[in-house]
Amino acid sequence: MNSRSEAGSRLTALGTQLLEVHIWLREMLDDLRDNVDDYFAGKGLPPRDLRAHCLSFCTALTRHHTGEDRGAFPAIAEEFPELRKVLSDLRTDHNQLDWLLGNLQKLLDSLPEEPDPAAASRVREELDALSAIMQTHFIYEEKKLISVLNSMDVPEWRENRPGFLLIDDEDGS
């Protein structure tokens, strides 16, 4: 395989990598929801562990969106100026998701050691809202940006995997 083909294969993988990150984040949210349901059923993790799980998910989603806002979106806007409105809409979603994440963290911070039905309703409503916005955001982003990412040549992305494509603790920190 010549170097041009290798670069093309690597670039095409960026769109696939975005899908993989979105799948991973969806799974993390599903796991958090399952753990919350188990807690409220009286058979799950203690609130401290739920807060840690939430923090892990919230950090991963925030890192992904920060990486897009600071790295991917400016590069896309430069090469594809017709997508600036799409990118602006995605940034608006990021702000809304940040707000929902903050609400969820506050609710989990206030969980009592023993499950409370009133708290269950509030936490589940917040998880439902977060899930709905996240799902529609990911679907829209995938529809609009996968082919764009696959067509871009960003040499520094070939050298170092950008933050918006990191899963778990791949960055070594």
UniProtKB/TrEMBL annotation:
It comes from the Bacteria. It comes from Planobispora rosea. InterPro entries: Dimeric_xanthone_biosynth (IPR053206), Hemerythrin-like (IPR012312). This is Hemerythrin-like domain-containing protein. Residues 18-147 form the Hemerythrin-like domain. Pfam families: Hemerythrin.
